[in-house]
Amino acid sequence: MSLASTASAKTQPSTLARLFARQELALLVCLILVLAFFSVTVENFFSVRNLTNVLGQASLPLIAGIGCAVVFISGEVDISIGSLLATIALPLIIIMNDTNSLLLGVGGALLFGLIIGAVNGYLTAYAGINSLIVTLGTMFIMRGGVYLYTGQRAIPDDASLDSFIALSDGRLFNIMPYSAVIAIILLVAFGYMMRHRPFGRQIYAVGGNQEVARLAGYDVRRVKFVCFIISALLATVAGIILAARVGSAQHTAGLNFEFQVVAATVLGGVSLAGGIGSLTGMALGVLILQFLSNGLRGLGLPTEWQLVITGMIIIAAVAFDEAKRRRANGG
Amino acid sequence: MSELTHATAPKRFIGGQLLGSSQLVLGVILAALCIAISIAAPQFYSEANIIAILRQCALVLIVASGMTMLIITAEVDLSVGASLAFVGCIGMAVLNSTHSLTLGMLAALAFAGGVGLFNGLVVTRLRVNSLIATIGTMMMLQGGVYLFTREAVQNHNQLASFTDLGAGYVGAVPVPVILAALIFVVAYVTLRFTTLGRYLYAVGANEKAVRLSGLRSERLKLFAFVVTGLCVGVAGMILSSLMNAGQPTAGRGFELTVIAAVILGGTSLLGGRGSLFGTLLGVLVLKVIDNGIIILGWNQDLQMVVPGVVIILATYLDIIRNRANVR
Question: Mind giving me the DSSP string for B119-162?
């Protein structure tokens, strides 16, 4: 037994084993298993229509998940994104109703998002307040602010601009929902930034070891500040798509959205401790959860079961990941 | 360096030593709030209003007592809101079928304690970050309660003892307030005057050191999770008594209010630092603000905005004061 184990330890691990050690591959296998299982058990699951539909639904957590992952990798958290979704829908819809211009509405929404991100970022990076507390606070403030402003009523989109409606039901080449296209473009762009641009490396460095990053000459505060702005702006994009989908500014929009995104991000192997994880992993995490919930619905399970099963999967996935890491570190 | 600290130590004034200065700030904030509100609305100091405030504090304080212990050990539980709703439904259902308050209460405690145990085991044995683990549990409970019942579980037998749990009085004091006070005192004494309490602080401050000195840090954390769960059990029964039904939708956002109160009270999310007395002040500040907004006739949606501002502001003040102390 001991002979065999020493022998195997000395030889190079097989290619397959090395591939499996990569988080993303394990997730990809999970995703394929989910797809395979439901393709067999649910009629019409594996159809272009259904798969692209799910991609469209996944676009919101995918887009917001990029920001969530970036903030996690920098070693902070942002749980204000759910409330942000409801907040930025107000300037978007109001400006569009007034000016009949999608561009101005989106510009207004992005400006709001920028300000919110700057506030979160300033309070965390420069004032030094724990980011969980900051974003818990702004989460309350924004949700309460939306309730106050709207009197807990939805503000309908009266302009009904074609370009805005296209965001919800339009499809590129009549196949891929525009929202999914936007999500993929943003994923590729930010994936490139995180892997190949100096700023992406700075984010990993800051999250991995803040002190070392500081000594290496990185402006730790500025990096974190920008991460919060990225998170808020991406959540704004998700909020714009959501507003298009429901055709109004809903005061309850995005309730519990932050938990859904955080769960998928962590499932994708992005560590809350900072410095670890990838956008590919996050995207796979989102897709696994979305296809799972779509498939379970196809099986006729009530939506409540989806919540229960999602919760179990998240705990199991993180526990599994943790066990693997401990074994890799020799216990 | 050590000479410096020796020199500054005696200069601290006694009040600060007694309370810890963050509590002092909070006490001043609370006093200022009470004065400001009572000037604007004299009925603030009526007996009925004070009892109303205390009753609203009770639920939050009960769960916050457990949560303070848990956060001191550097863990957190986001599932308390979802658990609160589930516990109320289960307690009510058992009460309906057994006609016994004791059995209903035991079922609620067993369920809520079980949730705490589950969270604790996932965090300590499987090493899952508690923020994630309890988000997972929260989802499971939110889904689970609807699988258990889609509608509110009505109170069928109207036991007087059950109604008293939420709405009764002993003398002039509401029963929930007495229960909250009891739980608070037990938790306070445990944290402050027992070895167990010291160990809980130690685990939060430096878990490795605690393990190396031969203590089982996992057991201590597990204990804090179970205590938090049991507190939710008590609160869940009181809530269903107050609503005269088990509501599956109850407790939305309750976890955030509780955590906000604990943080406001000066307990650090990093663990090892904090006090139950601070939590008591935190709960009072939040609920006095809530009450003030109502009796001043302001828009009740401010009840979400103001606590958000207060949490950030209080934490910031704490940081500024710490920086000043270091200098």
Answer: HHHHHHTS---HHHHHHHHHHHHHHHHHHH-SS-EE-SS--HHH
